[in-house]
Design a protein that fits this description.
The protein is of the alpha+beta class. The strands form five sheets. Strands 8-7-6-5-2-11-10-9 form an eight-stranded parallel beta sheet. It has a seven-stranded antiparallel beta sheet with strand order 12-13-18-15-16-17-14, covered by helices on one side. The structure holds ligand H79.
Length: about 550
């Protein structure tokens, strides 16, 4: 810690000890970006349909009479492998006469989905839209001669449901672009990036409003990621760009394929899921059993994602003739049947305010907490930890309407769930008046010294860095600490400038191992460490915080 002459303390503007308004969330790397209202609406949708449809759908995971099982079926060209000219020749028989976009929109709506995202181009480079950049597209190269993406965009508009496009930054077809590498993290040449930009312009101008664009894979440079995001936003500022545009340029974070995080995130995010982990594109030899089990699996994943504040996008892989696999339609309708009486507990909700619930999951809206009962505790009581001070007024099972008792039990609130209906994951709406009051769990109590570490911290992560293999990095640590003026001794690896956030102010500090600082915290407040503020998305903490020894003290006046 440096000492500044006393006079300098009065001229705080740019000194090490400058205090400023808190900006403890990552700022976008480039502008323009969708408005706060768009982001909120996007987050409120909660459930959407992914469609993987392309030339690979016709092959259905088979090549020359053999089941190709060493990777996703939409990547069969690379997995079999199939020579380019032979793969391209399959376009001559691609004629999805059973493709019925209005029926797909209806199916999505029956499932309770609020938007649809379709593959406009996958890694194979075949375009399901009428691009002018190459003849290798559904209109020019197939007997179908119609623009699949356009047909679906129009159907979504008719049906009043959001529309989006998946766009792989990879292209195994165009000369001089990509050849397959196992990670699909191909660097992009300038010519390739230019080609992509030309296609992005087509997608963003000829298909109406695009709610989200689902960039996927490749390993663009930061400048290329910026170029893609900027191209989209210049034409449609309200389109939400997926994090797989990489280099932290996305408007929403995308988890790994089929990954459900164990905690909430500080930003918009989505889990993409397929019916079976092994494929997204149609696989003719997929064993499809236990529809009810698959329905329940997806209800649970949806609820886990939504209770952590995310959106869930579930994939279907139509057959080469355009028809939807009956099993997949049954699964979607099954999820929809569960959703119908419970939809109030899903759409437009916020993440669960509870750290942990022993019976299942929760979401919240002003005035109501929704409980999803995965396993009923033996005593039949659903315990809401530390919610005892909240004025709960009623509880009822959403599907049946039956009333349940809710009462205070010490510091908790408890719902007596003695009349739960049969069926998977029943939902209970618990109404409250006034504020939702949850007692906070502080890291320590009283005057005894205590230690902060990553085990008792809330941690915030950067996702979707330079490619699919990039590890998430830490940008913020937060602890709920007792009120007072404490002396904190920092045990860190590395050193660098960080910001301390406490008592509503941010203060910059150059932190190195063994540094000691006084930190003032008010009642029910947290102490955070972030990068120097403001910081852009993707900025990690410049050092590793191993632990912090805290000696509590009173604040002198
Ligand atoms: O379009 C779908 C995939 O084809 C595409 N993203 C989804 C939405 C994708 N291309 N490459 N990757 C995803 C990354 C590949 C990850 C994998 Fe794996 C690692 C595939 C095989 C090993 C994940 C982990 C799937 C199986 C194991």
């Amino acid at each position: 810690m440096k000492f500044l002459p006393l006079v300098a303390a009065a001229v705080v503007s740019s000194s090490l000890f400058a205090q400023h308004a808190v900006q403890d969330r990552p700022q976008p790397r480039s502008l323009p970006r969708p408005s706060a209202q768009t982001v909120q609406q996007w987050q409120g949708q909660k459930f959407g349909m992914f469609i993987h449809f392309g030339l690979y759908s016709q092959l259905g995971g088979m090549w020359k009479g053999k089941q190709i099982d060493n990777g996703y079926s939409e990547q069969i060209m690379a997995n079999a492998p199939i020579p380019l000219d032979e793969y391209a020749a399959t376009a001559k028989t691609f004629n999805p006469t059973k493709w019925d976009p209005d029926a797909i929109v209806k199916l999505a709506k029956d499932a309770g989905m609020k938007f649809i995202v379709i593959t406009s181009k996958h890694h194979d480079g075949f375009n399901m839209f009428h691009t002018a950049q190459t003849k290798y597209n559904v209109v020019d190269a197939t007997p179908y001669h119609r623009d699949i993406v356009k047909e679906l965009a129009d159907a979504c508009k008719r049906g009043g449901i959001g529309f989006g496009v998946y766009y792989s930054s990879i292209d195994w077809h165009e000369p001089g672009m990509d050849t397959y590498i196992p990670t699909n993290s191909n660097p992009l040449s300038d010519a390739h990036a230019k080609f992509n930009v030309a296609q992005l312009r087509e997608l963003m101008t000829q298909y109406g409003p695009i709610r989200e664009i689902w960039f996927d894979m490749g390993k663009p440079t930061p400048a290329q990621s910026d170029l893609f995001a900027t191209t989209v936003h210049k034409l449609q500022p309200q389109t939400m760009v997926s994090g797989r545009v990489w280099n932290y340029e996305g408007d929403f974070t995308v988890m790994g394929d089929n990954e459900v995080p164990q905690y909430g995130l500080d930003e918009p995010w989505q889990t993409p899921a397929s019916m079976f982990n092994a494929t997204w594109g149609y696989r003719s030899w997929q064993v499809r059993k236990d529809v009810q089990g698959k329905i329940n699996e997806n209800i649970l994943k949806l609820v886990q994602v939504v209770s952590r504040g995310g959106n869930y996008i579930l994939n279907i892989g139509p057959e080469g003739d355009g028809s939807v696999v009956p099993y997949e339609a049954d699964v979607l309708r099954g999820v929809g049947a569960w959703l119908k009486p419970n939809e109030e507990a899903i759409y437009g909700t916020q993440a669960s305010p509870f750290a942990q619930l022993d019976f299942g999951y929760a979401t919240v809206k002003p005035g109501t907490v929704y409980l999803f009962v995965k396993s009923l505790p033996k005593d039949g009581k659903l315990r809401l930890p530390l919610a005892g001070r909240t004025h709960f007024v009623s509880a009822k099972v959403m599907s049946s309407g039956s009333a349940l008792k809710v009462e205070r039990s010490g510091s908790d609130a408890v719902v007596a769930a003695d009349a739960l209906p049969r069926g998977y994951l029943p939902v209970i709406a618990v109404k409250y008046e006034g504020a939702l009051l949850l007692d906070k769990v502080l890291v320590a109590k009283g005057d005894a010294p205590y230690t902060l570490n990553t085990k008792n911290a809330e941690m915030f992560w950067n996702y979707n860095g330079e490619g699919y293999e990039a590890k998430k990095t830490l940008y913020k640590l937060r602890w709920l600490v007792p009120q007072g003026c404490s002396t904190m001794t920092f045990h860190v690896s590395g050193e660098g400038k960080v910001a301390f956030v406490a008592a509503g102010k941010a203060r910059e500090v150059v932190l190195r191992d063994g540094a000691a600082e006084k930190v003032a915290v008010g009642k029910d407040e947290s102490f955070e460490i972030t990068p120097a503020q403001p910081f852009v998305k993707g900025t990690p903490l410049p050092l590793t915080v191993n632990s912090v020894d805290v000696v509590p003290g009173a604040c002198s006046r």
